[in-house]
Structures are given as structure tokens and as C-alpha cells.
Amino acid sequence: GQQLNQSPQSMFIQEGEDVSMNCTSSSIFNTWLWYKQDPGEGPVLLIALYKAGELTSNGRLTAQFGITRKDSFLNISASIPSDVGIYFCAGRRDSNYQLIWGAGTKLIIKP
Amino acid sequence: DAGVIQSPRHEVTEMGQEVTLRCKPISGHDYLFWYRQTMMRGLELLIYFNNNVPIDDSGMPEDRFSAKMPNASFSTLKIQPSEPRDSAVYFCASSFHSPDTQYFGPGTRLTVL
């Protein structure tokens, strides 16, 4: 079946550092989404991307829809403690309405 | 406005018992999704509804799982009989017009002993 490969699985960073994570697939997607899950809560949508090459920001977060339409990237600048959590990518093809989810990147900030 | 409401928040039951999880989507939303999250398998879509009609239930693990949406403001996920491997956090999510912007509930943490 369709799969999204999300990396890295986890990241240990210092407060103030920049963070990069990505999501790749062997299939083309027409929509890429990035969600964040805080501990004990459900995921929340951060950024939605609908066009190849699109670069969209949400505060310190920036996401890009890869030119090949098979990947997407999320960057967080100047990380702060509240950035901890699990970041999920999700993709959708127009052929059906089901989102395909990545396994998540767990972000941990070292004290 | 209230978000997606799920009940109970925690459920502990014994193997073989019936478990019913409940969800109230955001008013006006026409999509409803049930997910299961575990450490081993991550976030899995079980089933989703559009306008109260089940569209894709291919993620439902087996016949022990069933889901209903009798009206636009209520859905249930039932496990009968429950097994220890069903232990997980079950999320309900809803969205309007598109499956992209999904609003998740707080989840139900199910423990089957």
C-alpha cells in the first residue's frame, strides 16, 4: 500500500536550534499536510500545502511541497520548549479522500 | 465553540468485554474519522464517514470492530469482544468539506486487561 517515510524518527535538540524534518513517498501526492501532536492530545494541523514547489510559513514553522510531489519538508527555526511533541506529515491523492500518515518525528528539547 | 468531544477519556476493561467509544463531531462538519494510535503502529485510520455514510472501513482490524454514525452529531466505535491487543488511544476527528483540516478530539485511552 501507499506509505510515507518520515525522518528522523526522533530528534534531541538544544533550545534555540533550528529543526528540519522530511517526508518522502514513492507515489505522487497532490496535498501535503503537517500536524503536531502535543502529549496527551490529538494532532493539530500546522500547515497545508497544495501546489508543487509551494513554500508556506506559520510563525517559526516553514513547510515546502517538493517539486517532484513525492516529498515535503518542515523546518522550525529557533526552537522553544513548547515545540516538543510529535510532528506528523500526511499526504492525499485526488483519487480518494483518505489521508496517508507518516509515522511521526518526535521532537525533544534537551534542558 | 466546543471541539470534538470524546467519551470516555479513559476506559479499563477485561478481555472479552464489550467496549463502546463515543464521539460528537464539531457542529456542521460532514466528515468523521476514527483513528487508533499505538507505539508500535503509530496513527492508523480505522474508518471514516461522509454525511453519516461509511466511506472506507478498510482499516477496521477485524469483525470485532464496528462503527456507526446514526446522525450528524454522534458516532460510536464498538469492540466486541475486546482483547488486550486492542489497548491503544482511539481518536475521533471531524472536518468540513475536505479531509485535510481534521480537528481531533482528546482521545480515549483504552486498556484491556
Helix content of chain B: under 10%
What percent of the residues of chain A sit in helical stretches (DSSP H or I)?
under 10%
Rg from alpha-carbon coordinates of chain A: 13 Å
**Poorly predicted tracts of residues of chain B:** none
- Topology of chain A as a string of helices (H) and strands (E): EEEEEEEEEEE
Beta fraction of chain B: over 45%
Order of helices and strands of chain B: EEEEEEEEEEE
Number of helices of chain A: 0
What is the tally of beta strands of chain B?
11
Separation of the first and last Cα atoms of chain A: 40 Å
Please explain how this structure is put together.
Chain A has 111 residues and is an all-beta fold. Chain A contains no helices and eleven strands. Chain A is 0% helix and 52% strand. The model of chain A has no long low-confidence stretch (mean pLDDT 92). Chain B is mainly beta and 113 residues long. Helices cover 0% and strands 55% of the residues of chain B. Chain B has strands at residues 5-7, 10-13, 19-24, 31-38, 42-50, 53-56, 65-71, 74-79, 88-95, 103-104, 108-112. In chain B, the strands form two sheets. In chain B, strands 2, 4, 5, 6, 9, 10 and 11 form a seven-stranded mixed sheet that branches. In chain B, strand 5 (42-50) and strand 6 (53-56) form a beta hairpin. Chain A binds chain B through residues 31, 33, 40-45, 48, 88, 92, 96-99, 101, 103-104, and chain B through 4, 31, 42-43, 45, 48, 50, 55-56, 91, 93, 99-102, 104-107.
Task: Summarize this structure as a short list of keywords or feature phrases.
heterodimer; A: 111 residues; mainly beta; five-stranded antiparallel sheet; 0% helix; B: 113 residues; four-stranded antiparallel sheet
Q: Can I get a quick summary?
A:
With 111 residues, chain A is mostly beta strands. Chain A contains no helices and eleven strands. Chain A is globular and about 40 Å long.
